[in-house]
Amino acid sequence: MPLNSLTSAEGETLLKVTRHIFPHDTLEDAVYALVVRDLDVASPLLPDGVRELNQLAGGNWAGLDETEQFRHVEAMAKTPFFEKIRSTAVVSLYNNELAFAHFGYEGAIGDGGYVNAGFDDLDWLPDPKPEDSGINPR
Questions:
Q1: Number of Cβ within a 10 Å radius of residue 46
Q2: Considering the chain, what percentage of its residues have pLDDT values greater than 70?
Q3: CB–CB of 17/85 below 8 Å?
Q4: In sequence order, what are the residues at sequence separation of 6 or more whose Cβ sits closer than 8 angstroms to the Cβ of residue 47?
Q5: Which of 14, 52, 91, 94 is least enclosed by beta carbons within 10 angstroms?
Q6: Contact yes or no for 11/36 (Cβ under 8 A)
Q7: Would you state the pLDDT for residue 118?
């Protein structure tokens, strides 16, 4: 993905930081890259934050193992850098078609109503007895 104000290394670091803040093992990097795209135009403080992470790591933060990366991200949790990533990611990460497909969100029903819109898709619970189900308009 082409970046405008961030370097590729900064983009990679921000993607990994976002994964630490919002960890989803099975969510593809492409979804996290949408956050980096939005951060790329968002703030001049991001390169400074990446430099600070690299300083904390003694060089290349992105090259550390995940446990060490997390430790450094956690140390920056109260900084404007962390807050900028967190507040951007909470929208960019979850409000897109890739995330909807991954998490099984079928989208808004709109004017169609919700009566028969999948409320019985609970595959982790047993089906209730018919007498316990109340009125079923089907």
A1: 24
A2: 83
A3: yes
A4: 5, 6, 7, 10
A5: 91
A6: yes
A7: 64
